[in-house]
What does this fold into?
Amino acid sequence: MKYPPQIIDQIKARLNIVEEVRKVVPNMKKKGRAWWGCCPFHNEKSGSFHVREDQNSYYCFGCGAGGDVITFVQETSGGTFSEVVQRLARQAGVKLPDSTPSDPHAAQRRNDGYKALERASVFYQRSLNADAQAYIARRALSPSTVEEFALGYAPDSWDATKSALLTEGFSPDVLKAAGLTTQSEKSAEKGRDYDRFRGRLMFPIHDSQGRVVGFGGRVMGKGEPKYLNSPETPFFNKSFLLYNLHRAKPHIKTTGQIVLVEGYMDVIALYQAGFKTAVAPLGTAVTSEQITLLWQQHSHPVVCLDGDAAGRTAALRMANKALPVLEPGRSLSFVFLPQGEDPDTIVQKDGIATFRNLLTQTTSLENLLWQQLSSAVDVTTADGRATVEAELSGLLAQITNTTVRKAYGQTLKDKLYEATRGSRAPKHNQHKAPQASAQQAPRDYKPAIQGDAATRTLLALICRWPHILPQVDETLGHITFPAGPLAELSQAVLRAYVVLKLPPEDLQQDLQNGPHSSIVYDLLTSTGVLTLPEDTDALSLFHEQHGIWQSQSEHRFKYTEMLKKGDWFSQEYFDKFKELKENSSSGHSAALTPSSRRPI
It folds into this structure.
């Protein structure tokens, strides 16, 4: 059974090739923009097999095997092409047609459609009239920019485009299939084909391979709609396209940045000013497929929106679209421009440096979600807290990846606890802690050494024995190292363990032989961890040497867990936390546990 090419493209766009390959090659490592591992198609030890998420492709330099996500699943599962497409379509949520009869002329018609779209673009460029040129001049676009983006004009005529393309030999059916013509519904002219775009400034829209697949047209003068896109065709599906992506891709690789702006003119103005990694949706709300497209280019895209209420609503809508497709190592950041401004006007008035500076003032996805949860309620009241918790449960339910759901849940619960802790402080002269008598026996604890030495030792033990990470990963994540080599090493460890999910033996090899090897060696020697026997119980040694008061650590963990489970605000738990904090601040403990780093 044959499937339309656009269906195959949709499946490939929705699937993450890295995730599919890792089901077969679990120990791949990321180096640069590619993932590397041992080839599943031939025996090797050198790891010459690599996967490029941004190109949706794999290739082995050893045996020459290569292809896309569908090819890989077919080759490794042994299924037929049709079976694999059906399985992956279900996985990707793409609806397959009930049946697609074999058509020997389909490929030719598809090629004719691409050619017709390309020739239409040339026709529009040659048809630029005085009104369109005046508009371009008002937008301060240079001739080279107009040529680069192939801006053109669709004559204000019923059939100028159709006539020009028919003269070149294209059939009426090809023009209709490409979305260049449409049929009249008026009774007197019913069935007559006429130009879809008339009297509009034309923006060619390309797919990721650089082929013209459709157009966006801006009306010149009065008329509605202001912008008109090509209809859904075998070539054009606006949910799976981003304006300028084909042109931005090589620059994304060199700059490590991609920015989503709202409109075509924003993209063009930024490109002319030297900022070449901007892309835009096609005049409609951003889809989850477009977010996935962004992530295929870069793991942390920046979304640039107006600072007004409409812009913030669009940001929240996009954030909620992102939740079901969030994966470890992927996120979004949002920049809200001054009200009344857009990238085009900012570049015109203040220059590209001002725009670049605005891109440093981002709001993270988790902070945007927190603003959504808390902005309309008073979280210091029981009703407000209940509202936030209910909405939080709904948000988290949208996240399908369990690791990401857990991480976002904990982060947002921490924010709620931080926002409400002041409201639970005991009133003056109430709930006074009892005065300790001189006869009371001292608590059983050992004094802790300085936190810096303890944290360095913990990091060294992890580098020597990465198998302890499941017990201490949250602890490491809550430690803030000063900017420098240790901070970089800590982040590398967490990324390798949490995001890349490297097994302990691979992580150890990576740390001791990779780019951080000199830092690791200095850390192991300076802390004395390098000289310890191989069978050392690392966790027990750490607790013993660094004076962790285990009983208090356990109590703190116990009460933190109670808070996590929802009994956040009872006076009993507040008093217990207050007591434990006072003991800790008076020098009784410096326990390096996740709970000891929580706000109190």
About this structure: The longest strand covers residues 212-219. The chain has five domains: 5-92, 106-236, 245-361, 371-424, 451-597.
